Amino acid sequence: MPERITSLTPEQLAMLPGIRDEWLAHGLSTDIADRPAAEAGIRAAYQAAGLEPPRVIIWAGSPWTGVIAKILAPSIIGRHAQVYAQVYAQVRAQVGDQVGAQVGAQVYAQVYAQVGAQVYAQVYAQVYAQVYAQVGDQVYAQVYAQVRAQVGAQVRDQVRAQVGAQVGAQVYAQVGDQVGDQVGDQVGAQVYAQVDDQVGDQVGDQVRDQVYAQVGAQVGAQVRAGLREQSWYAGRLAGQHWAGYYSYFAAMAAVGVQNLEPILAGQLEVARNAGWWWAFRGFAVVTDRPAVLHRDPLGRLHCADGPAIRYRDGWGFHAWHGRRVPAWVVESPTITRIGQEDNVEVRRCAIESLGWDRFTREAGLARSGSCVPDPGNPGQLLELWDVPEELWGSAVRLLMCANGSAERDGTRRRYGLTVPARISGPLEAAAWTYGLTTDEYARAQRRT
Amino acid sequence: MGTATLGELIGRHGVDVLEHLDRQVEVPVLDGLQFQGDLAVIPDLQNLAADRAAQEVPAAGIAVIEAVGGGHEHRLLPTGELTMFAPLGGGQDLGVLVTTAPAYLAHPEHGYLGIAPGSYLLRRQREQADEERLVAD
Description:
Shape of chain B: globular
Helix content of chain A: 40-55%
Strand content of chain B: 35-45%
Strand content of chain A: 5-15%
Shape of chain A: globular
Strand order of the largest sheet of chain B: 4-5-13-10-9-6
Order of helices and strands of chain B: EHEEEEEEEEEEEEEE
Largest sheet of chain A: 4 strands, mixed
Oligomer: heterodimer
Radius of gyration of chain B: 14 Å
């Protein structure tokens, strides 16, 4: 048994920021996947779990396509099992080598053409039962057990705080979780609702039309049933979006914890080279990384002029300071649409997206108090506006102020900050944003 | 040490700012309330500096607000003599600055802010959402 690690040397402590930054970069990477490296990682992860490596590895362009792929795959693989030997090479080539094409069109059509219309009932559970448990849960149990056995609680806390938690807060909490929510919502909104309470052919057609549009091919009953009955996350390993978790163990290995490498190396390799993946008996589904990822200064998904995250197959979504929003909020916000929007959070995002200056003008806001000079910011003014509660959803006022430094074009950027509605004047409002009294704020010497 | 221009300070500390900011402008060293965007430098009248575990700020400075995503950091820079910073651990109050020589805060968009010897509270700006939230530029 290796000696238990109860404290870290200065050299070991100095390594932690580098490991943190390396995994932040993996977690937020928008590079195209390294497919051979990721596939090698997947095979190694199966082997580490004592499983035969998957015969088929299906690449999908995004987590959404991956969900469709993992539902489709069992029936496709089952269907061509009889002639597996003959068609394996062709199918594998199709599945593995085409970038970004949707799974239905790419795989289903090919296989269908090869083996004909025979329908095989595949029980999904048979395919993934045990595999995720072994590749996923048991691996975690093993690596945690190794770390607990070899490392004292204090050091574990230290590494968690300086590496794992920081990376996780940036990557999973801000990005992976949102991607998951979007996939889940999309499954719910587009399939569940229409399938769950309906059984007739009519509805079946309707669902098929919806799914068809998403997948790019007619995919039939397996997908409908699969999406209804199978959790989208069953069997999932979030790969790059589990950077927080992986960074913790990478740091533990770096400070000398033994026996982690053989268990976890494959998974780390996938996380360094691809996006999400799902592990099943006989096959795995793995996705590319996003092509576009935009965040705000606090690390939340945000983009003011397009999708905040977009994958190479076109799937993605818009977000405003960490909140997923419909495209119109970012692309074409108007006072009319804001007024029609039911969701208060979406409404607020749309107001910010429209811009406070335009909003105060176009929504006809009433000024609260007079317009006053901003102390320490010569030539700039502070204004306070009433925001209608029915628009914002709660009682607030809006402070309009100006930056202390000029923009590239020489203008001053003006921005709006919301303040509690009890505040009656612009100076008091500006003071409140810094937790100062009005008298204290009035003595400001300089603002840049 | 007399008042320096923005260009001189960039040369001295190696922390650059956006190219459109005027390098010839003098950066005053002040002992009162100042703002650098979403960061306030508040004279520490309550003497919060007393009995805090402070660390010496190295010559390369420390990021009192770190750059995340597309954002910029606010970097605290000493000028030779002792400059100490005691973080207050999250929230609006970032920490207490105690300096025996002028210190600077550098930010790519906001340039340099000169801080006279003394003790100060560094605090972030907030706004009212459903709950209060911190402002970030």
